[in-house]
């Protein structure tokens, strides 16, 4: 067990740093986080939840605390304006389409969800922030493959079509019953910084998620890119 260091004299800051360092050493359940830092569970949960609000921490598919996109973004040069700018754009996109929206960052051999918005009700797709997904399936993977020098199983003609129309789509590819459409988000210098996606039940979006949501998604992406 590593006791937190209160040497700075700012107790809540020292505790937040201790929690972040603990999670940085490996994903933690609340019990593990409490044991590792020596903090009471209620205190650890309160601070970790606050850090999650600021995207310093997030939770993986198992409910464990993991490092959030704010830290991974700093490590990989993610623009500081991206997440604040994306939030209202994604909320409007969800309101317009009625489907879920996700923002993905390329993280080595995976793509990581760094922001997500879901409709308030109804059947919809949920991708927790911090989730790491494959680059071998799904519309977001196609967009990354079309604009980044990564290994992928997609045909060159398929990727050229993605670049031509400005989006990629998939139906029951990464997950049966799930459909999505994705677009690239560029910085002013033309560098791909993220991929914005709309996803939902295949029954609502097939046969062409692009025909259903593509134009709304491209408009949202243009707005987000302009904010950068």
From TrEMBL:
Gene3D superfamilies: 3.30.450.40, Winged helix-like DNA-binding domain superfamily/Winged helix DNA-binding domain. Keywords: DNA-binding, Transcription, Transcription regulation. The keyword Transcription applies. SMART domains: HTH_ICLR. Residues 10-69 form the HTH iclR-type domain. InterPro entries: GAF-like_dom_sf, HTH_MetabolicPath_Reg, Tscrpt_reg_IclR_C, Tscrpt_reg_IclR_N, WH-like_DNA-bd_sf, WH_DNA-bd_sf. It comes from the Bacteria. Residues 70-228 form the IclR-ED domain. This is IclR family transcriptional regulator. It comes from Corynebacterium coyleae.
